Structure formats: structure tokens, C-alpha cells
Amino acid sequence: MIKKIDHKKMGSGDRGWLKSIFHFSFAEYRNPDNINFGVLRVLNDDTVQPRSGFDTHPHRDMEIISYVISGELTHGDNMGNKRTLGRGDVQYMSAGTGITHSEMNNAGGPLRFLQIWIIPDGQGYRPRYGDKRLPWDERIGKWLHIVSPETGTAPIKIHQDADIYVTELAGGRELSLPLEKNRQAYIVVIEGAAEINGAEISERDAAEITDEDIKITALPKAHIIAVTMPKE
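-> C-alpha cells emitted (232 positions)
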């Protein structure tokens, strides 16, 4: 079963320096009927203007992944990490018992990135940070597995039974992703458009999929992210 979610019907925010699309209840978008999808608690599509960003702020007991779409994301935290990442790179932070960090756009052009929060399988983990610079070619025409549970094989591992995959498909190309029994998926067409399980999904739109494998056909070129997790 597939449920298409039009980005124009999602929450949104505009603070001047920051424009956001909120897939789930967050910040100024309050919707008690749209808090999460399984263990996926937050998925924000953020565009940050040059020389601005999220100043130092705290988190705890959440698995946080940032996926850079365009521009440069500069991270800093109280553990001494400071990194700048570009298109297609991935940053991970397990907030655990508590961490403070900043996410800034210090470059001269806009930054667009996805901010993804996944509810951990427990509380009180030791905070940690990691990032990966991933060659773009590794996702062209195939799934690049970027996040997995601790027992998985992805380069970034989190404290939850969830996986994240990304791909870029040329127009007309097809790709599938099997969903094991009792798992579900949340898919976002980051750029371009695609037909997913018979539904046309445009840029920035999303789809919830349960009880069936994922079958994708790119319409124009399509850049897609998929989050799989236990079924609710």
C-alpha cells in the first residue's frame, strides 16, 4: 500500500534566513495527527541562506542524520568536532545523554539539506559524532546504503533498527527495493520526479509504503532517499 504526501500540504516555516518543509510536527508546525512514521520522528527539508544557520543548541536521546543536497554544511559541537560537508555527504550524531552543536552555512550560496531524526532503541547512550564523504557515482543507478543499525553494513550505524538508502536515476531508469515482512518505508523525491508503486511523486513530495516492495521509475532524472524501519 502506498500513501502519497504532497509537499504543498506539509508544514512549512519561513524565518527569512531559513525556509523549511516539515514532513512531521516540528517547530511552528504543530499537528498532533502527524507526529511520526514509525521510528522516524523528524524529516525537515531545510534551505539556509548564506552566512547564517543554527547556532549552538542542545539535543539528547535522538539519532540525528543530516544529508546535504546542495551547498556546504558546517558542523561544530562540544566534543571538539568541526567539519564542512558538501553535496551527497552525510553527517550523523547520536545525542545520547546530551550534546550541543551548531549547523551553519558559512558559504556564499544557499545550503539545502535534509534533517532526519530517528527515535533510538534506548536512552542514555554515550554521545557520538560521525560523517562520511560519499562519492556521487556510488548512488547513480543503484541504492547507496548510507545508514544501518549497529548490526548492519552501512558506513553510518545508529541505535535503531532503521536503514537509509539514496539513489539518483536517469529518466526512464527503474530500480526496486524489497521490503521484508513487517517493515515499512518513507520515501522522499529530493530532486526530479518518479513513479513509485504506480503513484507519480514530484520533487519534495513523499510516500509511505507498507506491505509491498518498492518499485521506482524515474520520470526526469530523480534523486531519492528511502528510510526503512519496523512496521507500526
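The longest strand covers residues 40-48.
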